[in-house]
Amino acid sequence: MNKENSCLVASSFIKKYKAGYPLITDETIQANSLREEGMVFRLVDESNEFIARAYYGKQNKGIGWVLTYDEQEVIDEAYFIRKFQAAFQQRKSLFRDLETTAFRLFHAEGDGIGGLTIDYFAGFLLINWYSQGIYSFKKPILKALEETIEYRGIYQKKRFDQGGKYVEEDDYVVGERGAFPLIVKENGVQYAVYLNEGAMVGVFLDQRDVRRTLRDHYTDGKTVLNTFSYTGAFSVAAALGGATKTTSVDLANRSLRKTIEQFSVNGLDYEAHDIIVEDVFHYFKYAVKKELTFDVVILDPPSFARSKKHTFRAGKDYPSLLKQAIAITADDGLIVASTNCAQFQMKRFKAFIDQAFKETGVTYQIVEEFSLPQDFKTTKSFKDGNYLKVVFIRKQTLK
Ligand code: SAH
């Protein structure tokens, strides 16, 4: 252990790390320190006093993560076993819930290891590796999983640059091979998922509470427009909640068959709903021209998206997106505004909402607010980790 490299923390950041900040960035450590993917090193202050033990792994957010604040704690298989046991213990109620078979088992820095997430899909595990560095711990991590959880098989996604290559067979790791689509349940709703099709699994697990609330309280007897609809997960939740009709709009060709599939696995007649492959911004113009309005309008754009005619950046363009939604929302209707953009927090998101309504001259009321659900565990010392913001906004009629 004496050979372990030490890395001096820039003095202005020492307090932050001592308070539990987990992310290593270029600014926080000495520039000339050795940086090898997967290398474990000590973070120290000017007097060579131990602060934390971290690993080096370059990803979009930073260059590594703290693994422990305990100088005695070694990073080995037993370390991963302890982390997994603690995390799985906290998901006990989800394991017991027979109506939900898809959830997050391990959420990166929230569960103590940045750059690593593990999802549970009806007995299969899906590991997301966010850097070459964390991937280099694959062996002890797989062994630790074997020790801590019963599973049918393991799949993986390497979400880091591999020289531009994506190798498909790479998705399967060990155990039983899944038959895809795998049908999972979420609060009784079925979703078809694929663990072997690259980044596209088919359902974003962090919206579970949002989908349930939408289904149980806001869609009965309503018309629903779901924009940036992907596989139509919100549309399915709305249809099961009693929506008279849902309209799903997404630019990607695949969204048509993927949405048909999600409706079908729930025994819903997809032909009674509209599934439109089109640029959302086009669709808004079309709807205004045809004087269409919807009782519920769902907005869930990516943080950044480029289509032929539009570039959308959530941090800048969300107010304008909201204004277009307000124009086609029925009086007393509901807008579900969602963003997973980590660059701004709820306060700023609400300022965007306020700006859009003020500029439109319409009053509103916020009726529901969501951030990440419990299984997407976050830590107070890393606020940016809580990237999800969802606000249900009631458009008010002026009487
Ligand atoms: N709301 C979805 C997730 C959205 S993912 C869900 O809950 O499952 C973002 C989606 O936006 C992608 O499917 C992408 O194809 C789509 N998209 C990006 N830009 C778009 C645009 N300009 N018009 C329509 N869809 C767009």
UniProtKB/TrEMBL annotation:
SUPFAM superfamilies: PUA domain-like, S-adenosyl-L-methionine-dependent methyltransferases. Residues 11-68 form the RlmI-like PUA domain. Residues 115-342 form the S-adenosylmethionine-dependent methyltransferase domain. It comes from the Bacteria. GO terms for molecular function: methyltransferase activity; RNA binding. It holds the Pfam family PUA_3. PANTHER family: RIBOSOMAL RNA LARGE SUBUNIT METHYLTRANSFERASE YWBD-RELATED (PTHR43042:SF3), SAM-DEPENDENT METHYLTRANSFERASE (PTHR43042). Keywords: Methyltransferase, S-adenosyl-L-methionine, Transferase. GO terms for biological process: methylation. This is LSU m5C1962 methyltransferase RlmI.
